[in-house]
Design a protein that fits this description.
Elements: H1 3-13, H2 20-37, H3 48-60, E1 73-77, H4 85-91, E2 96-101, H5 104-117, E3 122-126, H6 129-132, E4 142-147, H7 153-160, E5 164-175, H8 178-183, H9 186-192, E6 194-203, E7 210-218, H10 232-235
Parallel strand pairs: 1-2, 1-4, 2-3, 4-5
Antiparallel strand pairs: 5-7, 6-7
């Protein structure tokens, strides 16, 4: 079965119907990912079936906890090779996306993907979240923030929540260890004016690893102190 047929069938199991244009975009993204990965460390996952499952379908799992049709603006913090941002943008082209990564080479790759796939309403920014979150054009500007970054939930929330408008959401993609992080994140939620609204535990079809989506609602404005300067959140989590 060719790539597009496999992806279409797999997406339908998740009740996601992909158009011929979207399937073409996913295939081109896959090809660019594999080709660029030969010279730049983008992903350890290169097998076709695994990319479909662990990158594409996993990225789209956000819809399990969010009504994406009500999201107008979204920021992906620590996007890396474009996950979950690029797959979400392909499936929800009407959403305005900003992808943030601290490595300029990866941002260059994302801009090439944007051009090749014809993704309008998408911006890739080079910078650290703790610096960009102080930019008035970005702070408290997004309906939704998403992140598959591997940082501890308290650390990640300090980086991500400042980008979210009041009554907006942050969805953190986690593995099973995320359950322990939730237990230790209550002080962080209180300080940042947030609450954990939903925790969705699930498995992907071809992957035994447990996954979590942690949906956090921002209830009030983020204190100006946060995020703290680079390195501080990791050394001294809230």
């Amino acid at each position: 079965m060719e790539f597009k047929e496999k992806l279409k069938a797999r997406a339908l199991k998740e009740e996601i119907s992909l158009s011929p244009k979207q399937l073409d975009q996913f295939e081109l993204f896959y090809n660019m990912l594999i080709e660029t990965n030969k010279s730049m460390n983008l992903t350890a996952i290169t097998d076709e079936d695994e990319v479909i499952e662990k990158h594409f379908i996993d990225s789209l799992s956000c819809r399990r906890v969010m009504d994406m049709t009500k999201v107008k603006t979204c920021i992906d913090v620590g996007t890396g090779a474009g996950f979950p941002g690029i797959p979400l943008k392909i499936v929800y082209p009407e959403i305005q996306f900003v992808l943030v990564d601290s490595l300029n080479k990866r941002v260059g790759f994302l801009n090439e993907v944007k051009k090749a796939l014809g993704l309008e309403g998408l911006e890739a920014l080079h910078g650290r979240a703790e610096d960009l979150a102080r930019d008035k054009s970005l702070r408290a500007s997004f309906d939704l923030c998403v992140s598959r970054a591997v940082a501890n939930l308290s650390v990640l929330s300090e980086y991500c929540i400042p980008f979210v408008r009041t009554n907006g959401y942050f969805v953190s993609y986690k593995g099973k260890k995320g359950l322990d992080e939730i237990t230790n994140a209550q002080n962080c939620m209180n300080v940042l004016g947030c609450k954990i609204e939903n925790v969705d535990e699930f498995h992907l079809e071809e992957d035994e690893a447990e996954r979590l989506l942690i949906k956090i609602k921002k209830c009030k404005g983020t204190p100006k102190l946060y995020p703290r300067k680079a390195g501080t959140p990791t050394k001294n989590p809230l």
